[in-house]
Amino acid sequence: MNDKSETNASKLYDIVDIIIGVAKHDPLSIAKIAAFLSDKAYTEIQKIPYLQIKKYLDGVKRIEELGNSCKIADKLFSDPKRKNDNAMRVYKMVTSTDTEKKIDYLIDATRSMLLGLIDTDAMFRIFRAIVDSLPEDLDYLTSIIEKDGPFTGNIQVLALERSGLMISAGIDANADIEKQQYHITTLGFMVDRYALSLSNEERWKWYNNRANADNRKFMGPVPISNEEIEAMFNEQKQEIIDSVQPKWESINSDEHFEKIQRISQRREAVALLVCATKSEGRLRIGQDLSNINPYVEIGKHMLPKNDDSRESAAWVDAVKTLEATGMLECVNFQHKMYRLTNDGWKEADVFIEQNDLQENDITDPNELVKILQ
What we know:
This protein is of the alpha+beta class. 58% of the residues lie in helices and 8% in strands.
């Protein structure tokens, strides 16, 4: 936005109040941001900061729906002395990103904070490092994180040094500046662990193994184990599952045939069942701040791709079908988070084999539905 446009917009929409209000699920604040985005008096360029904020807040909302974490309103906006400053910092950081991928990183850093893995100060430091770095440089950091340093200087290393993610190992007077040796800083490891690679299970195992092996200080605070984090996102206690999801104690061949036939009659159900094997058996039903229809989220895919009522109903019905036939089980009170059961994994393998599906066929449910037609 230019100064004049930003001033005009702020007269109608106080972004600080909007951020705090949306974080507290205030309907009026949610309506304000939706109204601004649909207001034709503003250009698409003027709406970009609000679209960025909306993407970030939608991502945080999904984190809170997982349960077992603090609310962002409680962590950032409960202190009257700091809530406005924190909201402004969030606004400045999020709207300074130059790619959607960076906003995803900020969302993951927020997730780490809400789970108690880092404090708010560390979160904002991670925010700043991400905003100040090129996406390509962050990718480079992730690619070298498991390698033993020091690292010889190059254009990516020097850029990461300016962002505080790497530091010189010492000055060699006989070498050019780009040939000096560098180490990854504590902040560099924190940025990778708590934002860039938060969803990378193999990377988390590596961090835990290194921490157990030599108690390296760069690992940062680890208040809970990796197994506990896994449980936070994907499991509830067995008695909770038993209370909300009936178990199929035994299945005779006729019942099994009827269930498979019921699934086979719905292409969307087959697509979700098969594609769930590529998202660690997990999917969820959600709804963002502006769309009236629920969606199904599986891996990196949102179904439907647009806010279409008919398609939305078909995908949500597919989830309910898989749940009713024992292929999926619900793992939270709201019936929004699901995972494949043992029967689900087995039947998914059968569908893949029977339909001669290849690896690239079972990543996108939308494309798989077309193949199954």
